[in-house]
Amino acid sequence: MSETAVKAPGVPDAGRWKALVFIALAQLMVVLDATIVNIALPSAQQDLGISDGNRQWVVTAYALAFGGLLLFGGRIADLWGRKRTFVLGLAGFAVASALGGAATNEAMMFGSRALQGVFGALLAPAALSLLAVMFTDAKERAKAFGIYGAIAGGGGAVGLILGGFLTEYLNWRWTFFVNIPFAVVAAAGAYFVIREPQGGRNRSPLDIPGVFLSTLGLVALVYGFTRAESEGWSDATTVGMFVGAAVLLLSFVLVEAKVKAPLLPLRVITERNRGGVYLSLGLAIIAMFGLFLFLTYYLQIVKGYTPVKTGFAFLPMIAGMITGSTQIGTRLMTRVAPRLLMGPGFLVAAVGMLFLTQLEVDTSYAAVLLPGMLLLGLGMGTAFMPAMSMATQGVEPRDSGVASAMVNTSQQVGGAIGTALLNTIAASATTSYIADHIGGATSRSQQQLVQLEGQVQGYTSAIWLAVGILAVAAVIALTFVNAGRPGGTAVTGSGSADGVEDELPVPVIAH
User: Fold this and answer.
1) How deeply is 420 buried, as exposed, middle or buried, from its count of CB atoms within 10 A (0-12, 13-18, 19+)?
2) Burial class (CB within 10 angstroms; exposed 0-12, middle 13-18, buried 19+) of 407
3) Transmembrane residues, as ranges (predicted)?
4) To bridge 90 with a disulfide, which of 116, 158, 183, 304 should be the other Cys (CB 3.0-4.6 Å)?
């Protein structure tokens, strides 16, 4: 990296707002990719001759690579430099997307998705830690995190709209090719605009045992939940994956406590506020990921919406998230303690979920879905914004990459758990409902109605569990996160793990 790409520590970067545009663009690309591919999957499966049994690997290959390598990616950002890692991640993601769009068979598709995951694991922590070290003023940071939080939360729903348009009016391949202009613009902008503060590198030798244990452990954990969704929780391989993940991750913690230069310094996760953020955010993502899936199925299969109409149906949630992040969260973050935004935010989201437990086959969009999604988005946006800003609060600059990666990891693992756990609950409730009611259906139309009612019963059963999970996330946020407001004094006990009180105008953020 050239000398012009480095700025003196303690001096606000004059180009920081321009840099935010390109960092946010990269974040939007990664978040979009998570949902945009789901919309295109049926068309891609048919074109490439992918079997029903193998189609899950289009999603799973990405999830395993991304989730397994996040901690390693965060450490690489601290070691190589965040700007360099960010640009490399964007370039690699663009190449992998081009391969996915040009795929001629299932092996090429699965390989491109895994490659996207590898470069995404470099890109995401680097983006967050760049934002952390570039915005040092509490009020400015609140605005930056509000914008970033809105994208992190609402980008997935935008992906549904864009995916619907591209698949319906162009071709499924464009759901991959669309990443290329995003990546090129973000990489070029980052190269010329971003100047990384001096003294933030962690040049300690790489903790190879830590990389090995964390990557295998996280891959086993994510794959265990993914497999549980399709094969069941009692499947021998599923159970083996969970046991293996537990052993590997426990070994990882023991190694990190002893090595001189750990991949994940335990001080990053044992500090009370950060631990509370990682845990509550992971739980909220469990609830939200499952809901995205169920609402997409409900709108398309039960209500008969087209992919494009389904995407537009999610707009109230996006509007709520943007309002919660950029208006409520940003305006209040410098005035109240983070827990007073996170706790109530998760509870408002839970109320939104409560609306959605009332779904029936003929439910009115305006009466139930609209207010439910609006409240869900508003609550999540309000809670995500301070949660992300707290993610690396008090962390030394040399640890900011790996601390950012921890938030990405909690979200990625939360997403895998949410999809598998809530899908299992839904499938079980659907099967039970149909078994109990199909006997009374004498005509074909009545049987089809029972099938649809069974699906909706499954969705609402899973959404009830999501309500409970969000309530637990709120309790954790209110009890664990006890830091004072940014720019104010820290609440007793909110110091860092090494006993030094943290100044609050030093937080960070995550995907």
Assistant:
1) buried
2) buried
3) 20-41, 56-73, 85-103, 115-135, 147-166, 172-194, 206-225, 237-255, 276-299, 311-328, 340-359, 365-388, 462-481
4) 183
Separation in Å, CA 495 to CA 133, 267, 274, 489, 490 = 20, 11, 11, 11, 7
CA angle 350, 353, 357 (to 5 degrees): 135
DSSP calls for 32-78: HHHHHHHHHHHHHHHHHT--TTTTHHHHHHHHHHHHHHHHHHHHHHH
- Given a cut of 50, whether residue 432 has pLDDT beyond it is yes
- At position 148, the amino acid (one-letter code) is Y
Q: What CA–CA distances, in Å, run from 139 to 69, 132, 142, 404, 444?
A: 33, 13, 5, 20, 62
**Which pTM value belongs to this model?**
0.77
In whole angstroms, what is the distance from residue 226 CA to residue 213 CA? Answer: 20
Q: How many residues does the chain have?
A: 511
The angle, 0 to 180 degrees and rounded to 10, between the axes of the packed helices 400-437 and 208-231 is 10
The values of phi and psi at residue 182, to 5°, are: -55, -50
Residue 146 has pLDDT above 50, yes or no: yes
398 contacts 261 by C-beta, under 8 angstroms: no
pLDDT for the residue 128: 79
Torsions phi, psi for 505 (to 5 deg): -70, 30
Residue 5 above 70 pLDDT?
no
Higher pLDDT pick, 175 / 402: 175
Using an 8 Å Cβ cutoff, are 330 and 502 in contact? Answer: no
Q: Which residues pair with 197 in a beta bridge?
A: 7
* Dist. CA 499–CA 484, nearest whole Å: 16
